[in-house]
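Dear colleagues,

For the upcoming journal club I promised to circulate an example of a predicted protein-ligand complex. I picked one with adenosine-5'-diphosphate because it came up in last month's discussion. The inputs are reproduced below in full, followed by the predicted structure.
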Amino acid sequence: VSHDTTPAPRQVDTSQMKVSDEVAIQITEMNKWFGTFHVLRDINLTVYNGERIVICGPSGSGKSTLIRCINRLEEHQAGQIVVDGIELTSDLKNIDKIRSEVGMVFQHFNLFPHLTILENCTLAPLWVRKTPKKEAEATAMHFLEKVKIPEQAHKYPGQLSGGQQQRVAIARSLCMKPRIMLFDEPTSALDPEMIKEVLDTMIELAEEGMTMLCVTHEMGFARQVANRVIFMDQGQIVEQNEPEEFFNNPQSDRTKLFLSQIL
Ligand code: ADP
Ligand code: MG
């Protein structure tokens, strides 16, 4: 786990990043258990379109579980999660619909090793969206250009650096044209010199207005890009604020302790 405070790699103009008053995600009194272990407690969270939210907190506090609940990789047992107006229930149609609107990028890139970069990017559009092959490939090349590795399209994941693979993972998500992107420690498995290229890609997404929830220890990124920082501990949202206030004037003792350990 990287606890460094790498500054965001380039100047970010957040004044251009507009937050809408339309709700993207509404979580109400949500609770989740793993067996008897109460992992998420009374989570209430409203995310507006265009927000860049950074979620931080100690290991085991429930950050991954929370964002995995948003695209139903995990199931919650009480309360409500509504994404783009669709409630997440056991209704499979709704789950498919939400998964097609919510992209997710993991710490370990989860690319298919036996498929080329291009094939990794066209797989879901071809098989889930039934997009014609030519169109899926054109879209994939568009997003590979966006993450600045179009020349790698015909290589296999194992031939790329970690930073390049993570950018492919982001491009692959974008090929499904999501409205919301979830990131779970996208730079934690990367060497320091590769963190910058992935953060740059995320900054560009933010500049284009993507709604983003990012679990990350990159506090430089949080300061410069986030409009809101959320601190979780023991399955609860303990505190949230705009970055300036969050870092300079933390309210709870748990937040102060956490910040004193990582900054
Ligand atoms: P974080 O991402 O903040 O480190 P997680 O959401 O991964 O935390 O985990 C929160 C807690 O839930 C931890 O105590 C973890 O051990 C537990 N946990 C996570 N996934 C499972 C699972 N599939 N089954 C049982 N316990 C789990
Ligand atoms: Mg985690």
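Two points we might discuss: The pocket of magnesium ion (ligand 2) is lined by residues 63-64, 184 (CB under 6 Å). The mean pLDDT is 94.

See you all on Thursday,
B. R.
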